[in-house]
Design a protein that fits this description.
By secondary structure, the protein is of the alpha/beta class. The chain folds into three domains: 246 residues, no CATH class; 88 residues; 79 residues, no CATH class. The chain has a five-stranded parallel β-sheet, with helices on both faces. The protein has a two-stranded antiparallel ribbon with strand order 6-7. The radius of gyration is 23 Å and the shape is globular.
Length: 472
């Protein structure tokens, strides 16, 4: 029997438990664990999945980067099998794999469909990004609309806001100055209290220029999607790594197909983004499922995102080809540091991923197991890595970096840069542990930093603290 999976608005997985009736008391931890075990099909199904994944996880390499790749091949393959399963179950007739992580998942779905002897729906790769789809998705220029950026990236300046909205600074920069925005690079802080920004959003000329830019970008996006068969699908499925599903929201607002469902490796969606005909669900984690045990893998989202990312650069927008056909194509922006990553240790991780997938292919693509049956065992492996990494795994992760191409436009690094001495000296000694804890939790992978501290049982203490705070 299948394991419990997150519930998507309007599209509950076949194995989803019934929701609690109004007024029913919150189940105790013991009842939650008993319910999960009952729905997982018992120990036999769990160990069938664990036997399958452990046969691939074993590797004799001394290269920690290849070992990480071999490890990542397991959740990537299980997710690809889940995409194939859900496409059949839901009747999805066309899959769209979103740039840039979707390129890896499209290849995996095709390889594993062949290995398992299964059919796969028609599929296409979409050159999209948050930057290329946000402006076309905007209904107007207002506080309500720009709050969709501010909610995730609160440290905005006027110049950064223009970049996130894909608005030409040569046009909108002078308009901002005219509205009283003297320093476009100064942090805005509270947008509701910024008089210059309020004047800018309400200015008639600004709004006219915005509508022209928005409509032009929406036209190009819709034409690009039409060429990819977007509007011909009866039920389109989107495939991506996660986390908010914001590109799906943008596409649905800008150019909605007949019906759309997002399939994500993990999901932490913004409440209210789904609509009739537009749904989404996370496979390994979906924060709407109220299950801290699965949500723990989101403590290190970058490990999935970095090594599923395609090499081709980020999509900034769209342009029409200057040839007879005049078709619309994505505009690609390349990043020097990212190219260096792909030539260096990332190549070794990717080699390990390919080795793992090849081993799964030789095993028939795990054809006797569904994605839902693989999920409990794979989740346990992921939780072990994310929450209780070895010292070698934690040290190795510090060598990675990941350029952010939307929101903050900076390179994420994973070294702990805070000074413990400075944190202790910055306030009362009695509250120093809280300051240290908060600094660790601001990091992109808190358990990795704790493991590198060398403090005995520190990861168990952190796990207990995070579990307590989750109130699950």
């Amino acid at each position: 029997m299948n394991s419990p999976a997150p519930v998507s608005a309007g599209l509950a997985p076949a194995n989803a438990p019934a929701s609690r009736a109004s007024g029913e008391r919150e189940p105790t931890l013991a009842r939650r664990l008993a319910r999960r075990f009952a729905l997982s099909g018992g120990a036999r199904d769990y160990w069938r999945g664990m036997d399958a994944v452990l046969s691939v996880a074993t590797t004799n390499t001394d290269d920690p980067h290849r070992a990480l790749g071999r490890f990542l091949s397991i959740p990537f393959a299980a997710f690809a099998i889940h995409v194939l399963d859900e496409s059949r179950r839901l009747g999805i007739d066309r899959l769209y794999f979103l740039a840039r992580e979707g390129a890896a998942f499209m290849r995996l779905c095709r390889r594993l469909a062949r290995a398992r002897g299964e059919a796969m729906p028609d599929a296409a790769y979409l050159g999209v990004s948050r930057a290329s789809t946000f402006l076309p998705s905007m209904r107007e220029l207002s506080f309500a609309e720009i709050s969709r950026v501010w909610y995730q990236y609160p440290d905005q300046s006027f110049s950064r806001l223009l970049r996130n909205l894909s608005l030409d600074p040569r046009v909108f920069g002078p308009l901002g100055s005219r509205c009283g925005i003297a320093d476009p690079d100064a942090p805005i802080g509270n947008p509701l209290a910024n008089a210059g920004l309020a004047r800018f959003l309400g200015d008639e000329r600004v709004r006219a220029e915005f509508i022209a830019a928005r409509d032009h970008s929406r036209l190009l996006l819709a034409e690009y999607l039409r060429d990819r068969g977007w509007f011909d699908a009866r039920f389109a499925g989107l495939v991506d790594v996660g986390w908010k599903g914001s590109m799906q929201t943008n596409l649905w607002r800008a150019a909605p197909p007949a019906r759309l469902h997002g399939l994500y490796l993990a999901l932490s969606p913004i409440v209210g983004d789904d609509a009739p005909g537009c749904s989404r669900a996370g496979f390994f984690a979906d924060t709407r499922a109220d299950d801290w045990a699965q949500d723990q893998i989101l403590l290190n989202g970058p490990v999935f995102e970095m090594f599923a990312t395609a090499r081709h650069g980020s999509v900034r927008g769209y342009e029409r080809r200057k040839d007879r056909a005049g078709r619309v194509r994505p505009v690609i922006e390349h990043h020097a540091e990212e190219a260096e990553n792909f030539r260096g240790v990332f190549a070794r991780v990717h080699r390990g991923i390919d080795e793992g997938i090849s081993a799964i292919e030789r095993a028939g693509g795990w054809r006797d197991l569904s994605g839902a049956e693989l999920r409990p065992a794979v989740l346990d492996l992921l939780r072990r890595y994310v929450v209780y990494p070895t010292r070698r795994e934690a040290d190795q992760f510090m060598s990675y970096s990941h350029p952010e191409n939307f929101g903050v436009y900076e390179t994420s690094r994973y070294v702990f840069t805070e000074s413990i001495g400075r944190l202790i000296a910055s306030g009362p000694v009695v509250s120093a542990p809280k300051r240290i804890r908060d600094a660790v939790l601001r990091h992109l992978w808190p358990p990795g930093i704790v493991r590198r501290s060398g403090v005995p049982f520190a990861n168990a203490i952190l796990d207990g603290e995070l579990t307590r705070r989750a109130r699950r």
